[in-house]
Amino acid sequence: MFTRSKTLISLFLFSLFFAPHFSLSGQTFSIIKFPQLQKMLEKENDTLYIFNFWATWCAPCVKEFPDFQKAAIKFSDKKIKFFFISLDFKKNHTSTLTPFLNKNKVKNDVYLLDETDYNSWIDKIDPAWSGALPTTLILNNAKRIRTLYPNELTYEELVKIITSLIRE
User: Fold this and answer.
1) Structural domains in the chain?
2) Which of 19, 60, 68, 91 could form a disulfide linkage to 152, CB 3.0–4.6 angstroms apart?
3) What is the pLDDT of residues 19-65, one digit of tens each?
4) Looking at the whole model, is its pTM more than 0.85?
């Protein structure tokens, strides 16, 4: 029993110090660094991962955001996982990101990528990515699916892309 309690305490302390979570009326988001994102990008299983890179200061990102949430609901019964990777500035999260997520009642996994040297990690996402937002990376490493969409996507486009990939 002591070992289990010690393990739980260790996990709690790790998450407290290395992956801060911020509560949003029962919802949370985490602040991460690129190595944590890279681990998420390297998963090898039968799940289709959709990484939407966006920011609250990006008008096309804000415009497409509800479409991504709608698609996440549509495919919630499939092996598809949506990740919203915010490139907002960490110091402004309480004045920008938190209110945006509350207003939009976001239920998906949201991560604030705390990396200001974009040139050090953008090419690791995809060498073809200029860094423009919004950008969506859809991948399934087990099936060797990795497609970058460096543009705004509508709900219809997103559904069409996802539907074609889950049929493969």
Assistant:
1) 20-167 (3.40.30.10)
2) 60
3) 444 444 434 689 999 999 999 999 999 999 999 999 999 999 999 99
4) no
Nearest-angstrom CA–CA distance, 129 and 66: 23
pLDDT in tens, 73-125: 999 999 999 999 999 999 888 889 989 998 888 888 899 999 989 889 999 99
Tokens describing residue 12: 């709690």
- For residues 90 and 112, is the Cβ–Cβ distance under 8 A? yes
- Helical pair 155-167 and 59-74, crossing angle rounded to 10 deg: 40
Place of tokens 């990515």: 129
Phi, psi angle pair for 154, to nearest 5°: -85, 170
The CA-CA-CA angle for residues 151, 143, 85, to 5°, reads 35
DSSP code string of 95-155: TTHHHHHHHTT--SEEEEE----GGGTHHHH-TT--S-SSEEEEEEGGGTEEEEE-S---H
